[in-house]
């Protein structure tokens, strides 16, 4: 969902109803309440891809991915070298 705010996101979700089970939440929405939208959609049984484009030092990537995994997000975008990707995998922990 590359929409500007939570209201627009939930309007789209309501319009699509049960025909869609997986939602991508883009950066614009993430900075406008998108994490709350993601949490609500997960509570509703939807699957979430956060297109966060995480790019930072390894330990920060690890922590960010751990937080996202704990939320129940299915996919998140990570940019980086091999060490950053390994840190992201570590951060994922036991979450699928």
Shape: elongated
Outline the low-pLDDT stretches: none
Question: What strand line-up does the widest sheet have?
Answer: 1-2-3
Helices and strands, in order, run as HEHEHEH
Q: How many distinct beta strands?
A: 3
The biggest sheet, with number of strands, parallel, antiparallel or mixed sense and barrel status, is: 3 strands, parallel
Name the quaternary structure: single chain
Q: Name the structural class.
A: alpha/beta
Radius of gyration: 14 Å
Strand content: 15-25%
How many helices does DSSP assign? 4
Could you explain the architecture of this structure?
By secondary structure, this protein is α/β, with parallel strands linked by helices. The protein has one domain. The chain is built from 4 helices and 3 strands, in the order H-E-H-E-H-E-H. A 3-stranded parallel beta sheet has the order 1-2-3. Helix 3 links the parallel strand 2 and strand 3. Helix 3 runs parallel beside helix 4. The longest helix is centred in the middle third of the chain and has 17 residues. The radius of gyration is 14 Å and the shape is elongated. It starts with 5 loop residues before the first helix and ends with a helix. The mean pLDDT is 95.
């Amino acid at each position: 969902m590359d929409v500007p705010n939570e209201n627009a996101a939930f309007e789209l979700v309501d319009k699509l109803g049960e025909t869609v089970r997986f939602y991508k939440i883009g950066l614009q929405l993430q900075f406008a309440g998108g994490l709350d939208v993601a949490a609500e959609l997960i509570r509703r049984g939807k699957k979430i891809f956060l297109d966060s484009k995480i790019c930072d030092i390894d330990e920060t990537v690890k922590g960010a991915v751990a937080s996202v995994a704990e939320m129940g997000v299915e996919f998140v975008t990570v940019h980086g070298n091999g060490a950053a990707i390994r840190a992201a995998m570590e951060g994922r922990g036991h979450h699928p």
